[in-house]
Design a protein that fits this description.
This protein is an alpha/beta fold and 195 residues long. It has helices spanning 3-19, 41-50, 63-69, 105-115, 133-144; strands at residues 38-39, 55-59, 77-78, 89-90, 95-96, 124-128, 149-153. It has one domain: Oxidized Rhodanese, domain 1.
């Protein structure tokens, strides 16, 4: 085989290897990120396993979501993108407002990254929320703070809503059959003494 053919073959292998992970760019602009790094729930377990030495897996959902909907013990930490408030009602969305934003989010992620002996340059940060919107915002905040590889789990923990059922049963971590539980581990939860 000529040198040119070997170089082409290696290039094809490299392209195939990088495309093993990388869900399509979400159609919704609010789920797109500046880094353009996406993983879906079907490929997530393999992605986590193959990158375990450099991976930091953060669940950015609120503490009530984690407690009442469940979580995966594979996360390194729950660091909410924002907190739940119970004193303001959103009439349009028919739910309580999701505010205020966690002003310590980036610093809290930096602590987890550092605790694993990693840096912004080499850490692969996988972010998961309910359905992919908050994790995209969180990925953009980390990218703006200098993180080189902020990935978002495009379909989140619960996935998208089905028009037929009105429930989040289309895709997502839980619907992909990935491991999850209601049994929380204190050290992985967002508590003042753990941050």
């Amino acid at each position: 085989m000529s040198l040119r053919k070997k170089v082409i073959a290696l290039g094809v292998i490299a392209i195939m290897a990088t495309s093993l992970y990388g869900a399509d760019t979400p159609k919704s602009k609010k789920r797109q990120t500046k880094a353009g790094l996406y993983v879906d729930s079907k490929e997530a377990l393999d992605f986590i396993q193959k990158n375990k030495d450099k991976l930091v897996f953060i669940d950015v959902r609120t503490r009530p979501e984690v407690e009442y909907v469940g979580y995966t013990d594979l996360i390194d930490k729950n660091i909410p993108w924002h907190f739940k408030t119970w004193d303001k009602w959103d009439e349009k969305k028919k739910r309580f407002l999701d505010k205020p934003k966690n002003e310590n989010f980036v610093a809290d992620v930096e602590k987890v990254v550092k605790s694993k002996g990693l840096t912004k340059d080499d850490a692969i940060v996988l972010l998961m929320c309910r359905s992919g919107s908050r994790s995209a915002k969180a990925a953009n905040a980390l990218y703006d703070a200098g993180f080189k590889q902020p990935y978002t789990l495009v379909d989140g923990f619960e996935g998208g809503k089905s028009k037929r059922t009105g429930h989040r049963d289309i895709n997502g971590w839980k619907n992909a059959g990935n491991p999850w539980t209601y049994k929380l581990k204190k050290e992985k939860m967002y508590l003042p003494e753990n941050n």
